[in-house]
Fold:
Amino acid sequence: MDEAGVILAALMGISLAAASGFRVFLPPFLLSLSIRADFVEVDLVGTSFEFFETTPAIIILGVASMAEFAAYYVPWVDNLLDSIASPAAIMAGIGMTAIVMEGSDPVVQWVIAIIAGGGASATIQGATVATRGLSSTFTFGYANSLVATSENVASVALTIVALLAPLVAGVFSVAILVIMIKRIISNRQSSDS
Structure:
């Protein structure tokens, strides 16, 4: 993979990782479909990620995506899901970044996957947990469906943009990360007061 390919793959992976901070299973599901349909050109044959484009993997990810979308609309279940989704989002972010960077230098692949991919998904997931917590506290969970809808839309939009235009998605992801980090910092400062 040439340098331009590595940069585009990294941007796609980091953007998909950020999208998995909103919803864990949708970005891997759409990525697996895209790889299977040869829309995203990644050769996984003979790699440890070969299973990712198989029919069982696609079915499992699709069912998990639908279940996750629906579960976030059930009051208080959404808060319980956050405890499971937080580590899962980080793993999904790392995995997708590593998958789309397959064929690049393994050191570069895994450094970017772990630091940037895992970091992007952890930051977004942390902000969504905080947002849902505030919503649950101040509205007794009644506004959580609005939070869930906005997260669903963000995950779908960012995933599609990441697959269609990785450069645009990279810029969009950085903007989202900056906003989320500022929100986390302001929440911490207001809670310290």
Q: What stands out?
A: Residues 3-192 form one domain. The chain has one domain: 3-192. The chain has a mean pLDDT of 91.
